[in-house]
Design brief:
Layout (H helix, E strand, L loop, with lengths): L10 H14 L3 H13 L7 E5 L5 H9 L4 E6 L2 H11 L6 E5 L15 E7 L7 H14 E12 L5 H21 L6 H9 L12 H11 L2 E9 L2 E7 L4
Parallel strand pairs: 1-2, 1-4, 2-3, 4-5
Antiparallel strand pairs: 5-7, 6-7
Helix pairs in contact: 1-4, 5-8, 6-7
């Protein structure tokens, strides 16, 4: 994932996230279901897909599984995450490849040989400063083919500090419930302390989803909306007009 810090380049941080995803990311199935529903609304099935800040490649995996004619590239700046993605995507053979790219640098697009049909991103862009987020959205727009789709599954800012606290408690409660369901210990106070001290927290640069949607509209994206939201987790995006 592209970050101002280096947390996600740490092999232990990357492995812990890949291992514990089901316990730390609420409503994962709903997120994926909505994302795939939106891709099915395209007039033409996607042929080329890019996963920006791919982490362990889970978004590209589900898109390629749902779109058998598609091929894709997973981009990440973290070598440990790239390795997790290669293992996850190996079953797709030549349909999937993994490459290094740092979204802090406008040259990330050099990894793409031609305009693409779909760009997805999962919990990566929020690590960038706001000015760089907006610039990246414009770069994505330029890299999309006419009719292309951009969907960003993202960590966004709460409306107020009080709502941010509600989000944090919901996350901690989700993690505790997941551990209980798996027969694991669920010490809520210990989970709360770990959540507040998580190594990637300092790298978060959260922006309100409404502001980010406004940026997309200003850039030229059409059909921009927030398609799913759970406290500070949101799926939003839009499409590049055909003409």
């Amino acid at each position: 994932m592209p970050v101002d810090g280096e947390a996600w380049r740490d092999a232990d941080v990357a492995s812990r996230f890949a291992r514990d995803r089901a316990w730390v990311v609420p409503e994962s199935r709903a997120q994926i279901d909505v994302l795939l529903h939106l891709l099915r609304q395209r007039t033409v099935p996607p042929g080329t897909v890019v996963d920006l800040g791919c982490g362990d490649g889970v978004l590209l995996e589900v898109v390629l599984a749902a779109c058998p004619e598609a091929s894709g590239i997973a981009l990440d700046y973290s070598a440990p995450m790239q390795e997790h993605a290669r293992r996850r995507l190996a079953a797709f053979g030549a349909r999937a490849r993994v490459a290094e790219a740092d979204l802090r640098d406008a040259e990330w697009g050099a990894a793409l040989a031609a305009p693409v049909d779909v760009v997805v991103s999962g919990f990566a862009i929020h690590h960038l400063p706001d000015a760089r987020k907006r610039a990246l959205y414009a770069e994505i727009f330029d890299r999309l083919a006419p009719g292309g789709t951009f969907l960003n599954l993202e960590h966004v800012a709460s409306a107020t500090p009080r709502v941010a606290g509600w989000h944090d408690e919901a996350m901690i409660g989700f993690q505790a419930a997941g551990r209980r369901a798996a027969g694991e210990p669920a010490d809520v106070e210990a989970l709360r302390a770990a959540y507040r001290a998580r190594p990637d927290k300092a790298d978060n640069r959260l922006a309100p989803v409404e502001i980010q949607c406004a940026w997309l509209r200003e850039i030229g994206f059409a059909d921009v909306d927030v398609f799913w939201k759970w406290f500070e987790l949101a799926l939003f995006g839009g499409s590049k007009p055909c003409s």
